[in-house]
Amino acid sequence: MLQTKGLALEVRLSAYIDGELGENERTELDALLARDEEARTLLDKLKSGSAFGSGAFENFLHDPVPLALVRQIKQGPGINPKTERVTTASLPRRSTRIWPRILAASTALFLLGGAAGFILGSATDLAEPTHEADQRPWMDDIVGSHRVYSRQKEHLVEVPAAQSAEIERWLAASVGVNFTVPDLDRKGLTFEGARLLVANGKPAAQLVYRDRDAEVFTISFLQQGDGQQPDAFIETIRGDLGLVSWHREGASFAMIGPSSDPALHDLAETAAAAI
Amino acid sequence: MRPAAEMKDFRRDLVSLLPKLRRFAMTLTRNASDADDLVQEACERAIARSHLWNGDGRLESWVYAMTRNLWVDEIRKRKVRSGSAAAVFELDQLNVEATAEKAVYVNQVQKMILSMPEGLASVFLLVNVEGHSYRETAEILGIPVGTVMSRLSTARLRLAAMLSESTERRA
């Protein structure tokens, strides 16, 4: 425990608030506070500053974290977040680095210009790090569906969660994959209902969930053998969406949610165990 | 080198830590763009040195200390570039112009927090908001425990004054 005797009273009372004092000093300050109104006023002031500051610091947690940084950490090498900044200004860098960067940027612009026709005709997002397994056409379709339907706040699902038994019967028959709607309540996701989609020309099921912040998460699956290893979870990011896909017993599955959600992989593992 | 599964867990933990790490960085840099760059550099370094993280204690303390060291280095570089010989923590007053440029990124209360003299917000955050002990805070920030104590009480009194001013203005 700390010794604060001889220090300013506000310093001692501050340590008193934090429980950093030994029993003797605490007793001494208790006695002082009991008899001295100025000391009590000072303690109240310190406490009000603590409460005000704590509330203010909460707001910082609501600021968006740069998406490129999340991507870089989750996916490791292969992406340069400095080219994908959400925010703008950067720390001053050593001048020796500037010219190589300008040269590299010029070369990149030249190559991009030359390839513009190809790029415009392609659906591939060059800024995105893509995994080979993520190139499958059905993925494109379910990501597109997720993007479109997750914005339909009033018509998020085709069949609501209240009809879970009907959803299981209907989609199992339509898609050809027997399943149980995973209960992800303990993971903070509420089941909202389901849709039937078309992915790569085949029927696909989409189970829709919402978290406490109303962010939409979906689990999509369809019948197919695409060569993916059983139980191998592959995590990729497409723009603002994160995907975790896996394959089991002749069916391919994918969990989609905000790419900034660090728990997406865990959610997918939980869903895979329950579905 | 860490096994792949452990490395994945480390990366996941780091992503989970990002909002708090960014908040801590804001208390050091006091503007959003520098904070984002600092967080990025800190994460790069943490991943590169993840083999040194033994899993004991709080990951955030380890990353915070790394972040603080990077910022001290950056401040030193800036001083060399600008020709200033002032010590790192002698800059007691906020660079109001620089902060004003970034005002669009922060709300009024955040601006008040960031306007506190250097060193106060970090100590307040670590002890009062995140519950680190005085000793842990001193280790993270590389300062004596006595300095933690004096900065903390000063921060609390300044925040109380801000609250009072804010209340009077609204009345």
Automatic annotation (TrEMBL), chain A:
Superkingdom, natural source: Bacteria
UniProt keyword terms in alphabetical order: Membrane, Transmembrane, Transmembrane helix
Residue ranges crossing the lipid bilayer per the database entry: 102-121
Protein name: Transmembrane anti-sigma factor
Organism this protein belongs to: Sinorhizobium medicae
High-level lineage: Bacteria, Pseudomonadati, Pseudomonadota, Alphaproteobacteria, Hyphomicrobiales
TrEMBL record, chain B:
Pfam families: Sigma70_r2, Sigma70_r4_2
Keyword Coiled coil: no
GO biological process: DNA-templated transcription initiation
Domain annotation RNA polymerase sigma factor 70 region 4 type: ranges: 108-159
GO MF annotation list: DNA binding; sigma factor activity
Superkingdom as given in the UniProt entry: Bacteria
RNA polymerase sigma-70 region domain mapped to chain residues: 16-79
SUPFAM superfamilies: Sigma2 domain of RNA polymerase sigma factors, Sigma3 and sigma4 domains of RNA polymerase sigma factors
Keywords annotated in UniProt: Sigma factor, Transcription, Transcription regulation
Entry's family note: Belongs to the sigma-70 factor family. ECF subfamily.
The protein, known as: RNA polymerase, sigma-24 subunit, ECF subfamily
Organism: Sinorhizobium medicae
